[in-house]
Description:
Strand content: 15-25%
Bound molecules: S-adenosyl-L-homocysteine
Amino acid sequence: xxxxxxxxxxxxxxxxxxxxxxxxxxxxxxxxxxxxxxxxxxxxxxxxxxxxxxxxxxxxxxxxxxxxxxxxxxxxxxxxxxxxxxxxxxxxxxxxxxxxxxxxxxxxxxxxxxxxxxxxxxxxxxxxxxxxxxxxxxxxxxxxxxxxxxxxxxxxxxxxxxxxxxxxxxxxxxxxxxxxxxxxxxxxxxxxxxxxxxxxxxxxxxxxxxxxxxxxxxxxxxxxxxxxxxxxxxxxxxxxxxxxxxx
Length: 247
Ligand code: SAH
C-alpha cells in the first residue's frame, strides 16, 4: 500500500497557482491512483499531439510501465507530492527529470521489446531507465554528473531493477563494450547527433534524441539505421531539454 498524503496541499497551493487544478485533484489520492490518472492524461496528450507524432496511442507495454514505475521515488523528497503532475521537475545539479508524457513518447519511439538491449544517455534520476527496464532485457545508462548517477543507481537498486547498469561518464561516446544496441535514448540535447551513438546502433534500431541549442528550438528526432548503413531522420516534436555537456 502507498501512503495517502495531504499535509502539503495548503502551502503549495498558495505559491504555485498554475498547479491548482492538478494538485487539488491529487490531494486525496494515493500515489497509485495519481499515477493512473497521470497515465490517462498522457493518453489524452498523445491523442492531441498525433498530428506531430503520427501516433494516436502508445504501445500497451509503455503505458503499463508508466502505470507501474513509482516516479515519486525518483524525485527529491520536497517534490514527491508533485511526482504525478505531468511536468518536468528539478532533481538537483541544475538538471530535471523529464515530463512523463515525453518519457512515455520517447520510450514508444524507441520501439523496443522483451529481448532488447538499450542505451540511455543522461541517467538523471533514473526514472526513464526504470521505465525502459520494465519493457526490455537490459538498460545501460550513462550519467556525466557523479552525484546524480550514484543517486539513480541507489534508487534503482532499492526498487529491485537488476537489469539496469549505471555508469558515470560522457555519454557522447556511447558504451562500445555493450554495443550494438537495439535502441539508444538520449535525454539531454546535443547540437548535432553524436557520431559514436549512430555507430553503436543496430541495423533497424532507433536512436531517439532531442537535437538543437538550448532556448533556440530543439527537435525530438528519431534516427533509424537501414540495412545498407544509411540513416533516416524523422523530426517528431519541438521539445525543451537540458544540454548534453562534455567532460
Ligand atoms: N533521463 C533522466 C532525465 C535527465 S536530464 C531522468 O529520467 O531523470 C538529462 C541528464 O543528462 C542530466 O542528468 C545531465 O547531467 C545528463 N547529461 C548531460 N550531458 C551528458 C553526457 N555527455 N553524458 C551523460 N549524461 C549527460
